[in-house]
Amino acid sequence: MTASPNRDETKAAPSVTSIAAARPLLLQLDRFIPNRSAIDLDTASFNLSKENGTDDGTSTVSPGREEYQRLLASSMNVDGASRILAFKQKAPAPPVSHDNDLKSLYNQNLAPAPSKKTFRHVPSSQERILDAPELVDDYYLNLLDWSCRNMIAVALGRSVYLWNSTSGTVEELCQCPGEGDYISSLSWGADGNFLAVGTSDCKVQIWDAERQKQIRELAGHTNRVSALSWNNSILSSGGRDSLICNWDVRKRRDEARVATLTCHEQEVCGLKWSPCGQQLASGANDNHLAIHDASFRLVHKVAAHTAAVKALAWCPFQSNLLASGGGTADRHIRFWNTHTGAQLSSIDTGSQVCALQWNRHEKEILSSHGYSKNQLCLWKYPSLAKVAEMTGHSGRVLHMATSPDGSAVVSAGADETLRFWRCFGEPAVAKDEKATAGVVAGGMMGGLRSIR
């Protein structure tokens, strides 16, 4: 009889292969469920209550630890009954004697608060009118300038007159000898004593205004000299012969002409050196605007205007910003970056642009116009919004000049009048106490009504 096998013996031992196959299954389990029967719940509850306090609210912390926590909270000014981080409570004020050493460090770079901009009233009517008989009605000439010494030079026919706007006195400086000749351009030097005079007989004269004496005569043009501009000792002249002659007045007569520019094809009627003396802008009847550097090298030549370019004005607060105005067929004021030659903006004024003057105290530019309104317009820059429009001339407003303090502008029109406008406002330093220069009050001029 064969004995039956033992139940335990009939169970085969697991092979190595079956155990290895079971391991991946264990690794795929998503959580571990402990065996609660192996946990001592009473011991665990006691340990938790020991850390967080008992159920009846009493603490199991030792007295020594409680005293330590109390002293720590007192030294850090922490109120145990209040929350440390509170959104509705302000930080406690420091003691009166507390001095923050970092206060100067935090405040040293703070700029002063900008003052609120107040509205500036621009008078729409002229402050004074002077008769200017025989003022030549020619768009291409430049017959008016105001010196830093408060002297206004104006050309009336064959003569140049100097009018002192402080005292109101008038003197005749010079006169063309020829019967049919006339003065075609004027420009004061930077010192306000030397006046350059261009004539219709192709001459460039330099006069000492204080001594009323001619000190130089420069010959190089073959037609009338219609534009002049100074750059320290360099005098540039533009004429109907389309040439721009550059003279160094320190040299003797036969060496004075240092450069001749031939970038234009018709009469040069606009000529301005930049205030920094690094660039020369010229405009002509060929509708071109040209920019030369201080070494007389042509940098840019643009033909954006569709009429003669006479009105030129360099910006006083940005050295590479130039404004130019076109004649009757163009009517635009255009603004240029003279470093790149790019046109920044333009505006159609609706009439011939005769002259331009920048405001030194505000970002504004004043333009004078011809047909048909014969008005002066004040524009905000760079928005080009019209701030004011001033009328009074019955003929086109051919010339403008600004007073030494930058507050007043004088305009000369084809109606043979000079009109004074206080459109730029008082300079910042003279609002409380008016500067002597540039004041055109009626009392200072007495009863003068005419330049002659």
Structural notes for this entry:
10% of the residues lie in helices and 35% in strands. It is mainly beta. The strands form seven sheets. A four-stranded antiparallel β-sheet has the order 1-28-27-26, with no helix packed on it. The radius of gyration is 43 Å and the shape is elongated.
| Total count of helical runs of at least 4 residues | 5
Q: Termini separation (Å)?
A: 162 Å
State which percent range the strand residues make up.
Answer: 25-35%
User: How is the largest sheet built, in terms of strand order?
Assistant: 1-28-27-26
Q: State mean pLDDT (0 to 100 scale).
A: 85
Q: Could you give the count of β-strands?
A: 28
Helical percentage: 10-25%
Name the overall outline. elongated
Tell me the radius of gyration: 43 Å
Uncertain stretches = 1-20, 434-447
Major sheet attributes:
4 strands, antiparallel
Structural class: mainly beta
Could you give the topology of this structure?
Blueprint: H1 7-10, H2 16-27, H3 41-52, H4 63-75, H5 103-107, E1 128-131, E2 144-146, E3 151-156, E4 159-164, E5 170-175, E6 183-188, E7 194-199, E8 203-208, E9 213-219, E10 225-231, E11 234-239, E12 244-248, E13 257-261, E14 268-273, E15 279-284, E16 289-293, E17 298-302, E18 309-314, E19 321-326, E20 332-337, E21 342-348, E22 353-358, E23 364-369, E24 376-380, E25 386-390, E26 397-402, E27 409-413, E28 417-421
